[in-house]
What we know:
Chain A is an alpha+beta fold.
Amino acid sequence: MVNRLIQTLTADKVSTRPSDLEAHGRDEGYPETALPEAVVFAESPEDVSRTLRLAREHGYAVIPFGAGTSIEGALVPVKPTISLDLGRMNRILEVRPGDFLAVVEAGVTRKQLNERLRHEGLFFPVDPGADASLGGMAATNASGTTTVRYGGMRRNVLALEAVMADGEVVRFGRPVQKSSSGYDLKDLLIGSEGTLAVITKLWLRLSPLPAEVHTVRVYFEDVGAAAEGAFALMGAGLPVARLELVDERAIAAVNRHLGRNYPERPMLLVEFHSSTPEAVQAESAFAEELLREAGATGFDAARTAEERTAQWEARHQAYWALVHTFPGRHYMITDTAVPLSEMPGMVRYAQELMDELGLEGNILGHVGDGNFHTIVAARPGDEYARAEAFSARLVERALELGGTATGEHGVGLRKRKYMAREHGPALAWMRRIKAALDPEGVLNPGKVLPDTEAG
Amino acid sequence: MVNRLIQTLTADKVSTRPSDLEAHGRDEGYPETALPEAVVFAESPEDVSRTLRLAREHGYAVIPFGAGTSIEGALVPVKPTISLDLGRMNRILEVRPGDFLAVVEAGVTRKQLNERLRHEGLFFPVDPGADASLGGMAATNASGTTTVRYGGMRRNVLALEAVMADGEVVRFGRPVQKSSSGYDLKDLLIGSEGTLAVITKLWLRLSPLPAEVHTVRVYFEDVGAAAEGAFALMGAGLPVARLELVDERAIAAVNRHLGRNYPERPMLLVEFHSSTPEAVQAESAFAEELLREAGATGFDAARTAEERTAQWEARHQAYWALVHTFPGRHYMITDTAVPLSEMPGMVRYAQELMDELGLEGNILGHVGDGNFHTIVAARPGDEYARAEAFSARLVERALELGGTATGEHGVGLRKRKYMAREHGPALAWMRRIKAALDPEGVLNPGKVLPDTEAG
């Protein structure tokens, strides 16, 4: 198989070097790893096509690989696999400011794109923290700190090009703000984690850089009160651009890791993006009033762009701060989302349960969307088993409340066991879709859908 | 078949009265009609299920019918058909203000829901003009005047219950603000025009009624200049809530039809929804400045809520005003959407082409989305053939520019002929989806997908 790949694609696009295999047999969050047979570094949709055809012919699986920043096991092989790395397909093909449109290859990362857009007064708003590839972000339906205002990948990907399991290169959707033409396969592929097609190109909706930005840290007595504050803001219909909760333990870890001196108290990070100074002042003053009523005990506004950037860097480094605080452990990030009114109770439940189970970790996340994470650092063995039990109980509670096992990280291998419970009879219809688009099961087998209905 | 339906569902749910058949064999915009064999007035998902099973057994087609307000022929039978009317399933099952959530049966109309929500300080924003059923709006992926700010049905339907072709009742999606769990069949069913499933229940995302609303009519010398003005506003990233173009002919027709005295000039209808008085003032002052630079010659702000309501009623009555101006004709509404920068040129092209072909009609629409309509009133025969040629040329131009044949009205029968050109190889994958979900072709056959690749 490797020889056939080299013959077809040339040797510089195919690697079996141990370091390459090792880097492509894991992700950033799943504890298990498994080596692929080879890594293909695709440079075009045709390379993707050829790889899929060969893999099908030889009975191999293909796992598309972007920047490797996913965390639920979507990248880990479960049978003989060719890892299909799209990192070389990293050209920004077109930027059309008047249409708020960028056309990019799948391997372009979000920071690379935003760097290019800076001088156009535009940005691509989806912000999962990691410098993920845009193809990977589409494949996992990524979202993040700005989703409460700008939406996630479905809203911000207008169209995409994908290579189907049989090797055909197909475009889904049109680069316009809206369309009601035909079946929405674009949104079906988004979030399918490489199990229905390999995304190779994206037409992205850009947003104007906000004229006015106001960022403030808001302190609370406890993490539940902070969640209540977030709920109060959402209820007032204020156009918050970011609304993040960070608990005192995450702040303490960040202070140590990055040498900061933020007050070590539960806080909300709130940001407004407005079109005029008057609007941003009025909105943030109203927000402050609501937050005070909800129990906020203090406010620190970012006074400069540097301070703002530093604050969001701190938020995004919370995971790595935990890793540095507790090195050599397994790290598990929970990702439930619940209806907004249930979110404060859910945050309190998570905190109590973490203490009850004697686990070390943080709570933080996108509370404006009802989605938050706990990050647990557990020693392999018993403690990791407790962390898994913790995750399972959060998911069960979320599902009881009408919520979801995964707000934004996807299913991968880790969340498959909840799919039957979350989706009920819909799961069988998802299997029909998989069978219709990838009848031979070439594309990332064993992911998203559980092997049996029992999970 | 009718007897079996009556046996299974009871006689009060099944009608073969000529008036019922006639009302269910047509829509509000497609010139051809055809009678169904019977109309079933379903009162539950089980009724829908039983109807689908019987129809399949007897080789009948089933066409789901909401409020009958669609316009592209989606409701017109092309083979022996049971029309499945969901109008009796009109209960608002739950409103949860804290979760910004309403749960409704598919036959609830948008006005019915908004009336119920008025006292909660919430509304359901998708506004196609007609008082459509929410199930029908989901089935056709409806959008409208507020989509530029609030999105269309995909963004505002969180989850739905549908009856599949084999009669199974299935829920797709979860009532949370976001989820990355499993394949997105919810969005696949939205916009599938009753060809993949019958939507019976919806979990809807509600929005807070804006604290501050500012509505203004902005006048221009010609319709192209008005379109340029809209483009200038969009480019500045102002958070417009509505941005509609109406040409001078539409205004004249509305003045006659509703007894109004709006200046008969091309205009933009612009609305801001803001959280504070200062914000709405700042945003609208900035907008006025941009519009003046873009050539606006006058502004009339709505001074009262009544004046604002009257203005939007006028906008929504433009179609009926044309019907009253030219009674007894066939009316055709074009629905292209193009990238934003192409929109002014496209509007000018439509106006010139309408004049060149000697057609009578109006231009209006959702220019903030790059989507606009022309409404043509043509005498049956030669003139209607010219109207069809006009529509075809607009679609061709839109497709050349990267746009779509239908921004929001859907495909139905009328737009099938453009599907191969718009979607290319994706069309064959849409067929696979249809075959996977409705292998026997019970659900609204002959719609959306053309009979052959040539259309």
